[in-house]
Design a protein that fits this description.
heterodimer; A: 377 residues; alpha+beta; 2 domains; eight-stranded mixed sheet; four-stranded antiparallel sheet; 13 helices; 16 strands; globular; B: 270 residues; alpha/beta; Rossmann fold; five-stranded parallel sheet; 12 helices; 39% helix; 10% strand
């Protein structure tokens, strides 16, 4: 049999998924993947395929997420949940350095060595790969690369999954970021369940992906199996719950800074920061300086922050963005307008997390449509 | 203890003592604190009470009697830095529920000889009486925050005490939102952080014991409660628990009562 290579498509039975994950583990990777916890499908360390949300799905709508059981034992039959891979690479809390006072009055600085984690991400969706690419541009490819992010991104094995079950708050199809994955993976699975069959079509995205899959005999996917897989991803694109007209959203938002819609939305917005923190591309942080009680050691820590807090824009004399209106406008215009000027793409990948996890159910797609309707051109 | 160690005093007003016990609850760190300061006055821990002035005063409890209203002035005069600790000292505490009613009605219900009771009509936070340098929220306060505050004060730096909503702590810890995933009532979006998201971590909604965050949209939060079918009297109770005397929570509870009076069904706007 000719060995499989990059770009080839293989077929796998569901019971082979355990072997695949074990083979990845066997190469020293810690498996991080979706698992059921606290009434949601979250990302965490998994021991193997049994920890995946087998037979679970989610029902999402603005401000609501419900975990429900399916009639079939799918492994990836749900949309993205409250967690994103952001927390794996861009840590919520991090020590940047410590300073220690010396006897002679000076001080020495200790910088922690950025930690490389050999992790395999299981079940990464197309929107999430797009989000990782965006964070790479911001945190790796700009003039000030973040060494901690760089270290964590260094040694990562990606098992992507093509979406066949879009959530009701998803809109990746309209932004061109999904539902099928394009690049940036080692293996990409499409799960197919018919009345009589349950199989995965596995696309090989890297030589390492080929090696892992080559550890046991797998067959090439047949033409009909590939057609089944493609049809499901296409169907997901066709029945996506929401959309954003991305063609001129950058310009529309830029010329609508005084649109009355901002205040209406701010009246509803809790300012809770949840949208920014579940967003897989939001990267803002604050740094804090701590000391030990004796004052001999000082520690600088970095934490996720959010433009929805008043202190985020604090400068000498007070906060620049004092109103909820100015904070909401800051977030949306950054995400879908001037992000493009800074980083060459929109800052939104259409995952819908900010819609589902907003306790008020404020819907970014609806907001953009409303601003468009009152366009102050 | 160094010869010039800063002198610490701990004071109690209307309260349950739980917050000052957080100091004793510092365990290993208590030894370090005791080594860094002179505990000059702390009746909960020692009968040896040293005279003022004090470098740092921790004040627990709310002001509920004419005598206490005078006593806090004395303490302020004798304290270089005054820190109000806990929901009572920062927001009037649960006893601020009296602010919404006539206190003399309660007094006659509770005491056999109400004439002996000399109490104020309201329970108010320390900041309504004297200048407060720092506030630590919570019922009780978080002992790590207390340590951070003492630490920062001793080292002459700004304490790192986040004024943001509890949601920021949930998200950093990866706690799934109990409002969105389980439809639980959770005060997190309008409540001051600091507890480490203690209740949501155990699948419970936040009940707002830390009082309002720095920029809470309580009106929008109240309309959510209404939308989710919570009766107005239950919403009022949410805002009137441990921080009923905090202006943002107090005013919102009054607004809910007012609007319930005006109309029995205002389901417009999620």
């Amino acid at each position: 049999m000719v060995p499989l290579g990059v770009g080839d498509l293989a077929v796998m039975r569901p019971d082979e998924l355990s072997g695949l994950l074990a083979a990845i583990q066997g190469r020293g990777y810690t498996l991080l993947g979706p698992t059921v916890r606290d009434a949601a499908i979250v990302y965490g360390e998994i021991a193997g395929a049994d920890d995946l949300p087998i037979g679970w799905t989610d029902e999402q709508s603005p401000g609501s997420y419900r975990l429900t059981k399916r009639s079939v034992g799918t492994f990836f039959g749900y949309a993205v949940g409250p967690h994103s891979w952001k927390a794996t690479f861009h840590r919520p809390e991090l020590t940047l350095w410590q300073a220690e006072r010396q006897e002679n009055g000076g001080f020495t600085i200790h910088e922690p060595v950025p930690q490389t984690a050999r992790v395999a991400l299981i079940g990464v969706r197309a929107c999430e790969l797009a989000a990782i690419r965006i964070q790479d541009r911001v945190l790796l490819e700009g003039p000030f690369a973040d060494p901690h992010y760089a270290a964590r991104r260094r040694d990562v094995f990606v098992v992507a999954v093509n979406c066949t079950e879009p959530g009701a708050t998803c809109f990746c199809a309209s932004l061109g970021t999904g539902p099928s994955v394009g690049s940036g993976f080692d293996l990409a699975l499409t799960e197919v369940v018919t009345d009589t069959e349950h199989f995965f079509v596995a696309e090989i995205g890297s030589s390492q992906g080929a090696e892992v899959l080559g550890e046991w005999p797998v067959d090439r996917a047949s033409r009909s199996q590939i057609a089944e897989a493609t049809a499901r991803t296409q169907a997901a694109a066709d029945r996506m719950g929401r959309s954003v007209d991305a063609r001129d959203v950058k310009e529309v938002l830029a010329r609508n800074l005084e649109n009355p819609r901002w205040q209406e939305t701010a009246d509803r917005c809790l300012g809770c920061t949840n949208c920014t923190q579940v967003c897989p591309t939001c990267f803002c942080t604050a740094v804090h300086d701590l000391t030990d009680l004796s004052g001999r050691t000082a520690t600088r820590v970095r934490q996720w922050d959010s433009c929805f807090t008043r202190s985020f824009s604090y400068v000498h004399g007070g906060s620049v963005r004092r109103s909820g209106m100015s904070r909401y406008r800051q977030w949306l215009t950054h995400k879908l307008s001037y992000w493009a000027d800074e980083f060459g793409s929109l800052g939104c990948v259409g995952c819908g997390r900010c819609i589902t996890w907003c306790p008020k159910g404020i819907d970014l797609t609806e907001e953009i449509a409303a601003i468009r309707a009152l366009d102050q051109r | 203890m160094a010869a010039t160690a800063p002198r610490l005093a701990v004071w109690k007003f209307a309260s349950c003592d739980g917050c000052q016990l957080s100091l004793l609850d510092l365990e290993d760190d208590l030894l370090a604190v005791a080594g860094a300061v002179e505990i000059a006055s702390f009746p909960e821990a020692s009968r040896a009470v040293g005279p003022g002035p004090y470098d740092v005063s921790l004040v627990e409890g709310s002001i509920t009697t004419p005598h206490d209203a005078e006593r806090i002035q004395d303490i302020r005069r004798n304290s270089r830095i005054l820190v109000a600790i806990g929901s009572c000292a920062t927001a009037g505490g649960i006893q601020a529920l009296r602010n919404f009613h006539a206190v003399k009605d309660f007094v006659s219900l509770v005491y056999a000889h109400p004439t002996y009771i000399d109490t104020l009509a309201t329970s108010t936070p320390i900041s309504e009486h004297v200048k407060v340098d720092h506030e630590l929220h919570g019922c009780p306060i978080n002992k790590r925050q207390l340590l951070e505050l003492l630490n920062a004060t001793l080292n002459g730096r700004k304490p790192v005490i986040s004024p943001h909503p509890v949601c920021t702590e949930c998200k950093r810890k990866g706690i799934v939102c109990v409002m969105v995933a389980q439809d639980l009532v959770c005060m997190g979006p309008v409540t001051h952080a600091g507890c480490g998201a203690l209740c949501p971590r155990y699948q419970r909604g936040c009940f707002g014991c830390y009082g309002p965050s720095d920029a809470p949209n309580t009106a929008a939060f109240a309309s959510s409660l209404d939308f989710h079918g919570l009766p107005p009297e239950a919403s009022v109770r949410l805002f009137r628990s441990f921080a009923a005397g905090a202006p943002e929570f107090r005013d919102q509870s009054l607004a809910i009562e007012e609007s319930a009076k005006r109309s029995t069904s205002s389901k417009a706007g999620h």
